[in-house]
Specification:
2 copies of one chain form a homodimer. By secondary structure, chain A is of the alpha/beta class. The first copy, chain A, has 9 helices and 15 strands. About 5% of the residues of chain A have low confidence. The structure holds a DNA duplex.
Amino acid sequence: MLKKERQAYILHQVSLHNSVLSADLSNSINVSEDTIRRDLNELAETGKVIKVHGGALSKSFNSFYLRSDVYNADSKILIAEKAVSLIKDGMFVLTGGGTTIIEMARLLPENLKATFFTGSIPAAFEYAQHPNIEVIFIGDKIAKRSQIAIGGEAITRIKHIKADICFLGTNAIDMEHGITDNDWDVVQVKKAMLESSTQTVVMSISEKLNSYQRIRIGGVDEIDILITELDPGNKLLDPFRMKGLTIL
Amino acid sequence: MLKKERQAYILHQVSLHNSVLSADLSNSINVSEDTIRRDLNELAETGKVIKVHGGALSKSFNSFYLRSDVYNADSKILIAEKAVSLIKDGMFVLTGGGTTIIEMARLLPENLKATFFTGSIPAAFEYAQHPNIEVIFIGDKIAKRSQIAIGGEAITRIKHIKADICFLGTNAIDMEHGITDNDWDVVQVKKAMLESSTQTVVMSISEKLNSYQRIRIGGVDEIDILITELDPGNKLLDPFRMKGLTIL
DNA sequence: TTGATTATTGCAACAATTTGCAGTTATTTC
DNA sequence: GAAATAACTGCAAATTGTTGCAATAATCAA
């Protein structure tokens, strides 16, 4: 049995039973437990399973996007929870992509009725799972790395929208440079989003506070609400509060 | 035995067993393992198989275990393989959604350079995985059930495209009613796709031949190529051949 | 056709990957 | 905290891959 084949078998077992024991696997395909362990390690490294003492567990069986481990997932979930609380029935919501946005999408309450605009494939996919949410995809050329639509067409469409609230994940934010990023096309799209909504929410893990990148999306004064995983009272956030931002 | 012949044999074995060992192949056709390895390398480079230590796997193998939920998956993979052979470098390809299309997306050779237009979220996601494919998403309101963009905006955008080839999965097709479906909005989109491309390919598992649904997308005469999992010579396909369709 | 050129194939030496084992260390469980 | 179980480490043997090379086969221009 080829190595890949064996690993595929393991994955299958995991997704079937949600958990496996090294011993069982070793038994059923007749290889040493060491080999199984090595396989599990590899699968865990690429984020396909979660390794535990004695075997492995399935990652959430939400497996459409079985991307590698989300960096700092706990913080992002915290942020997402705060963000969800801002969305009310009937709102027009504009969102970018990014892992934090995806977490938010997963946490949306079932009974929420709202219209979501996005140019992100993973985000649209998640929104579409919700029974009461209407999803409008803003199409154009898809940027491979970030899986969002970029280009003039997308920007034009965004400008024709007037959303109540806009959620942006961010790569870097500080007082001096504002929100910054390092991909020209993505920046253009985010800029358009900023302009097209009444209220702007920026979500950022604290690690990204006070860092900046090459291209500017907008100043701190263009943001209405800043969400981090920190307690709103944290002194790291003081400068932003001074500027008049609401901190969650 | 000629090289091409040998590689065809290898491909056949792979698609038959989902995996092959270099040693076995070397044995059964009496060439050195080096030659087999070189063949496997070539086949892997053009994306026809996945090479692993000790042999090779079928491309669809990866998802083979993970995807027990697709109805009639084997047939769909067969269809997808035939479909892929129609796509050449530099083409503008327009596709719908549906499981058969997804299979096709997964089987696209790594080195294929083409531009794909689609309004389907899962399809766009798959296309975006390929290194040399440019993906243009046709946005609009997302239909939950089928995860594709529907509505006037999407249709207008499709009409502005002139694609070389269009691939449609289908729910029902027969001689009398042509291609039919049961969702009004989806039908409008598919109609637009039919009109916007030079060549139209319809993919259908044989089970859906000679069935029809309520809403008509287009007549049989608007189709250029029909792909099913059957042998092209199968007599079930005779009526379509009579009408001048190319059968794969 | 012929001679030159290119492609294909098998071989040999060397490099790498994979696998199981033994000994040791870490973790769990009572 | 001690016994049991699992995990890690280093290692050796077997298998598989790679590379350069020479012999052979296929292709093509004149």
